[in-house]
Amino acid sequence: MPRVTADNHETMARVTPYSHVHALVVDDMPAQQTTLRAQLAMLGISRVDGATSPEQALRLIRRHAYGLVLCDYNLGHRTDGQQLLEHLRSTQTLAADCLFFMITAENGYAAVASASEQLPDAYLVKPATASDIEERLKSALERRHALLPITQRLQAEDLPGALQACDEILARRDRWSLASLQLKAQALLAAARPDEAIAVYRQVLAARPGLVWAAIGVARAHKAAGRLPDAEASARAVIDRPDGRSALAAYDVLADALDAQGRATESTEVLRQAAAIVPSARRMRRLGESAFRTGDLVTACECLAKAAQATRGSLTADPQDTLTLAQALVDAGEPGSALAALAEAEASMRDDTAATGAAWALRAQALAATGERDAACHAAEQARQRLGAGAAGFAAVALARAELASGQESQGLERLKRCVCADHENPQLRQWAQAALQRSGRAQLVDTIVEAASREMRAGIRGARTQLRDGDTLAALAAIEATLATYPDNTGVLLEATQMNCLALRLGRSLDGELLERAQRHLARLEQLMPDADRVANIRRYLRETVALLASQRPDPALRMPERPTTSAALAGAGS
């Protein structure tokens, strides 16, 4: 059989059902790469690329549309194969139709995978043969091919098309019906149709009463519908079952439902139970952040230190682990340990301006706690230069705390107020701001600074709603857009602005280009700030229904909005 040179890593092979697959082998051992290439060639897979490190694999996956990735678990780097898989999935770098197979010498890999909560499509224990690969590949490709009409539409965010494809497969009543029902329920949740999703999950449970994923789906759908007590009860029912005690997704739904009901301490306890089952970096991170917000500094320091240590130097490293750890250490009266943690992670934050600015703010707090006032003021100035006036979130609160600690009280209090205004509906942010005042001996200012800022923002939104209800659409839009210009990442204002632009479209009975473009732009920003949030799914559905409604109607000039200057000009005039 003729062979192409080894330089391009291709072998002329017979045509098989797998000949079309473009594969990537990730292994730091050249001999193992050669073995896997030969085994793939036996299956007719001739297009095979190789990577010897996670970083090289990431570059290749970004450039090529692979159908299969064979990855060794132990890559001889700080990032192992499981962490590479987590990174690819969490960043959506890996195409939805790409199969990821893990190859490992460890019989206990299943425990490793479940601890990371990211399962590969298959895993093989060394020495893996060509027949082993073929067995897994055949099964995985059959499933992928059968469900491709659904998954392609889901990837294109064509939810109506995905639901139609689900129904077409379900009509065949073949062995893919259960998988199709699962995808249909997920698509209904993504389309903000939680009650229909519950109906599908209950259909599954009627046929398979013990199916854990369907029971968790019911809890998720209740949460998406805003029925938090029902979500709580459904999630607890799963956890109370013998086969549901390790269902981590149920713990997540329960923790979220409790948090949304203002029961943060109970939520932290639920996350503690989940972390005891699976002590992964992700679990430690979430428990540590929750414990920090509820004032349990011992748990926060312990968990965040574990998360930072487990991921340091890997693709899954998150600088926020070290930043929150440093803040918890300062609050726990350990400023020296906070400075040490920041110094250890300094190199990894060098290219991240926001993280570097937050780190300087935390240094300022730690230095102030040790009595080094001049050094603290210098560090706070370094933080201001890097973060700028538009800083928000954790970094802005850290800088406000640095200013308060280093004697710059008026600046710190004003920054805290602006920070709350920038995202007044974010309960975590309000907890951080309250803690900043309480731990600096200014608890009496919580209402004046934090609650007053929230009230001010809510009053402004109510005013714009009133103008819209009274028929002054232009003034309402001008008011909400002016607020958004001041606080561009305020999720509550973004949600309101998106909805108001949709209402204006409906009132105008036409697809006004400027209104539609603005609503789409606001929604895109919301999806960046609040990925997978139920409220964003609802507003996405509302915009989609608005466009569909207006596209189906014949324009009626009598129902259009009155002639006016272009929307942007009108808003500019009203906002001045």
Biggest sheet character: 5 strands, parallel
* Number of helices, where a helix is a run of at least 4 consecutive DSSP H or I residues: 27
CATH architecture of the domain at 295-457: Alpha Horseshoe
Widest β-sheet, arrangement of strands: 2-1-3-4-5
Low-confidence runs: 1-13, 556-576
Q: How many β-strands, per DSSP? A: 5
CATH topology of the domain at 295-457: Serine Threonine Protein Phosphatase 5, Tetratricopeptide repeat
- What is the CATH top level name of the domain at 295-457? Mainly Alpha
Return Rg in Å.
27 Å
Q: Roughly how many Å apart are the termini?
A: 77 Å
Strand content: under 5%
Task: Give the structural class.
Answer: mainly alpha
General description of the model:
This protein has 576 residues and is mainly alpha-helical. Among the domains are: 6-125, Response regulator (Rossmann fold), CATH 3.40.50.2300; 295-457, Tetratricopeptide repeat domain (Serine Threonine Protein Phosphatase 5, Tetratricopeptide repeat), CATH 1.25.40; 471-575, no CATH class. 67% of the residues lie in helices and 4% in strands. The chain is built from 27 helices and 5 strands. It has a 5-stranded parallel beta sheet with strand order 2-1-3-4-5, sandwiched between helices. The radius of gyration is 27 Å and the shape is globular. The chain starts with 21 loop residues before the first strand and ends with a helix.
